[in-house]
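Q: Okay, next protein. This is Nucleic acid binding OB-fold tRNA/helicase-type from Candidatus Parvarchaeum acidiphilum ARMAN-4. I've checked the sequence twice, so it should be correct. Can you predict the 3D structure?
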Amino acid sequence: MEEWIIDKITEKNNKSKEEIINIINQRKAQLPDLTEDAILRMLATENGIIPIKRDYKIEEIKQKINHVNISAKIKRKFPPRTVTVKGREARVMNFVIEDQSGEIPVVTWDENYIDKIMKSRDGESISIANAYAKENPFNGIIELNLGNGSAISISQTESPKKEIEKIEYKKIAEIRDGEYANISGFITRLFSDDIYLIRCSICKKKVDVECEIHKDKALSKTLRIRGILDDGLYSSSITFFDKQAEELLELSQNQEIKSKLNDISFGLYQVNVNAKMNKFNDNYSLTARKVASINYTL
């Protein structure tokens, strides 16, 4: 439940928070088909409290919330899929946005929004207004949903190299868990095995052949290139997904991916990364967010 609404109701009625929660529970017993959030909204309306739309950081979206405004960047897009709802076909699209605090999946059924997202590039800025967050019933993950009253705006960003230059430069040894940083270093090795990450298009779980829960459903395939980044003092594993992998390999649509892996090794690159602690070996693994080559002479 949204705490700010409870605070407003307690203030207006000179009641304690516990008393308001008791009222909500009583209404819930009388109206079992309504959620607690719906009952809280009902009380807010009865008390003349108009729900406000506020700006959120992604890390703050941990439960059901309505009227969410957020500014972030598009991290990854999944192809739209066609589903049948109540006997009618409709398209739905999932994509992931991120800010400095984290990332969150977004779902839209609106054709206009789907077209806008499909035309966008990973890394572009997106502003979302009047969305709502709820839990995905299949995997329990909180997702942001675009409803009829939502709006989005997408703006192009600067070139990857200029955008990277705005982030602090660090050595691999200086990076901490969850931190974003720029690293200049050599890619000393790229691995040619498992270059695609296969997921269920419904619950997003990793699969080999098919999802155990959603059998016969479409699978999504994400390009994933893993390698070693060396900054001259230390080295670390690094993973490039989708757009970053394509930028690294400078792929054309018909080019064989594996043929490029050997060519790219020992190149000098400027990479914006996110660090995560590997729980199996207590080392940090890096995920590339932006990548740009550096011209140099020996």
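A: Here is a summary of the prediction. The two ends are 61 Å apart (CA to CA). The mean pLDDT is 80.
Q: Noted. On to the next one.
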